[in-house]
Amino acid sequence: MKGLFLFLVLLGIAFSSGYEETTIAFEKEWKVSGNASIINFTSVFLINNSNQEIENITALPPLEIVKDGDKFTVHYYGKFYGNATFRARAIAKIRYKTNITRDEPLPEKGISYGGVVEYNDEMAALAKNLSDANSSLESLANLANWVNENMEYDKSYTGAVLPAKKVFIGKRGVCTEYTHLFIALANSLGFKTRFVAGYAVEENDWEPHSWAEVYTSGQWIDFDPTFAQAGVLDNLHIAVSYGKDAEDIYESVMQSDGSVAVETKTKIDLLENEQAQNDVLEFYFDEKNRSALIKVKNPQDKYEIGSYSRILPKEYGGIEKKIIVLKPYGSYDEKYALEGDFKEGYRYTIPVILSFNNIEEKNNISVEIREGSGQGEEHLDNQEVCLPALVLLALIMFYFFKIGGTEI
Known about the structure:
Immunoglobulin-like; 5 helices; mainly beta; five-stranded antiparallel β-sheet; seven-stranded mixed β-sheet
């Protein structure tokens, strides 16, 4: 009688990756045309904050750079002769980080910013149900995860600015709708928020993007419900402007004594990435039970909030992504049972990609199904490499390592 022998072997780790710090060149060009003789032109440019350090900022005369708190804008006031082209450029070092020394209880009562981020009783009840009275961080993570899991991304909503109440009903949209809904839910719990307009990499290109910041634990903490990220966003997020919602964000303001039009072009070049070292992710396999133990560690005496993901080919489990909170010196432990049907006489190589914030760990699992006699003779004549797995891995590697300059 033939017996079936299943062996699961965790191969050596191929490599760790992730961006500790990203350096980008950010350029904007404004082409102004019309029949005015004098114009007063102002446009947003970049945010300078603890996550995004602006270096070597320049503008071609007669355009001027104006610093207002943590915001850089550009300005021109003067004569106009029908056509003008303004340009500004900056080098920015992007490194999202947190310094959370405490986790506060929920605020005592809700607040309202009105407008497109107004909430109703049903939304407030949902937020309350998702919250933890003793942990603002867990509550906000739960809200962002709920928005990410329950919304459906729909590009046909690009350019629309829907009120959070309508988004809550339809549960469709792009980053603006995700952010409005998250802000409304957070406001219902009493958190101060602000809407962030900027750029991020979507489908291998730089695109306009939005997310939120929430004031808690004595600081502003980033939350991107579209990508299920928080705290330490990936370093391909560029902040341009703040507002209470999308309607509070402006690209440029023009005053003139005639009729003028402005055409804007943005160019972003990825100059340098500093690789992050993995000291937080651990991966173990139980060969007998075909299950993995994944551990995300916090080696610091501070709280950490961030995005955890586990990526396998669809037939072996697919993608799991969510925001988690780690207490000082704490850890997040996940047990995962490998899914999938395996044929006798084949060897499978399955990639597993783990990430937390800007740290990645790539592993390969080798699955061997041996058909033999009771003495365990081996009859492995075939080898099967999971093609969807290789395609997935190639796409992810392209995403993280092949981003170049993009004009928007």
